[in-house]
Each structure stands twice: as C-alpha cells, then as structure tokens.
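Revision sheet: structure tokens.
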Amino acid sequence: MIRRTAIGLLAGTSLLASQAWAHDPVFGLGPHTLFKGGYEIHVEYDREEAGSETENEAAVALRYGLTGDWVIGAELPYKRISDETESSSGVGDLTLTSKYRFWRRDTLALQESAAVLLGVDLSNGDETKDPALGNGATDWIAGLTYGYEGRKWYRWAAIRHRFNGENDQGLRAGDKTLLDLVVGIRLEPTPYTAPDTVWMLELNGEHSQRAELNGAGLANSGGTEWFVSPGLMWTKRNFAVKTGIQIPVASDLNGSQFDSDYRFKLELEWHL
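Predicted:
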C-alpha cells in the first residue's frame, strides 16, 4: 500500500512538473516542450535603448508539439527603430525553430531535462528601409539547454550560436554567441489550479564577431556585453505572463558603438 501510494505520488508530481512547471526563462533558452498535439500562442513585446537609438518590437509566435519531446514553431516580428534624426518601421524576418528534448529525468517533485534547438531566420524583412528590420540574408541558429525544475527552485543553463549569412550587397553581420545562466525560486508552493509566481535572476552574455562587407571587417561592429536580468513568471493553469529587464554590467564593444542602456521584455503565453 505504501509503495503504491509513493508510486502514485511520484507519477502525480511528474505530471504536474510537465504541465505546470515547464516554462522557459525570460531572456534565456530553456528545454520546455509541448505535449503531443498541443499549441502555444506566444505574444511578445521588446524594447531596447542604447545611446540615442531605440528599438521597439512586437512579435507573435505559434508553436506545435509534434511529440511530447519535439516542438516546432514560427515567429514574425514587427519593428520600429529610431534615433535622434530618423525612424523606420516594418515587418522583420520570419524565424522558424525546432526544439527537441533528448533527455528527461523525473524524480519526486523534480524534473531535469536537456534539449537542442535549431532555427532559421529567413530573409523576408525589408532591409531597404533599415538593415535592422531584415538583413537580406538567411541566418541559422543552434542551441543547447539544460533545465532543473523543482517545487521551489529552478535552474537553467544554455548556449546559443547564430551563424549569419551574407546578403546581395556583400554585407554579413557578425556571428553571435549567447550564454545564459538562470536561477529561479517559488517562494510559496501552490497547487496547479492556483495562480503561481516564480522570481528569476539571469546572467546573460553576448559576444558578436565583427560584421563584414565584401570580406572586409567593419571597425564599428562586434564585441561583448553582459547583463544581469531580474524577472518573474506568473502562471495560472495554461496561461503565463513573463517579464524582465536586462541591466548591463559589463561592455567591451569594438570601435564607436553605443553601449546598451537597458532591454525590457513582456511575454504572454497560452497553451492549448
């Protein structure tokens, strides 16, 4: 009887972990996937400021669970970029992604998992208005992520690399590597049916290589930035709100470039 009860409790907490706890951090990458046949509708707003330059982006994404471990998705952004003298706006590049969770271990009130991500950033954005709307090249993204999701504590770690292509004018943005280390805490455990809040603190690093024009490196491009990013995730059943702010703590950019002032993100997710 005791053994049967323990097995039932373990199965119940494992199911709860897969349904209620499985979310990614705000700025980093996590191993979260959907259940087979499930949909995720994702709406996101981002704002970045660096010196006199401001970028606002609204994006909508749709993701589908091919299996319980494999999810595919598409995201389309709309951007507005401005500085002291001019501004431009338009649809950005469509991004297609595929994430596969290749390892998962469930124990009592704890789930650990790891996943790989592959993505492609298409060249549909209007780079004639502004190269930041769409660089006219096809870019590839690869990532690896690990997640530790418990009843109280969360931990995530991820690395991503973006392989940027060259457009028709011979311009190639520098490849970018992103590193994310995240810790989260649920101060008050709640049942699945009740609203739930997880507080997060992220360390996000970005290193970009120099951009190239016809094979020649551009001096005012590339470099490294580090951010400390407080945020939170609020969920109720199949709906989640995530928000956070990236605060720069170290910067080593090449040439004459504005250091980041801050980056803000707000996300809404529905799982259907």
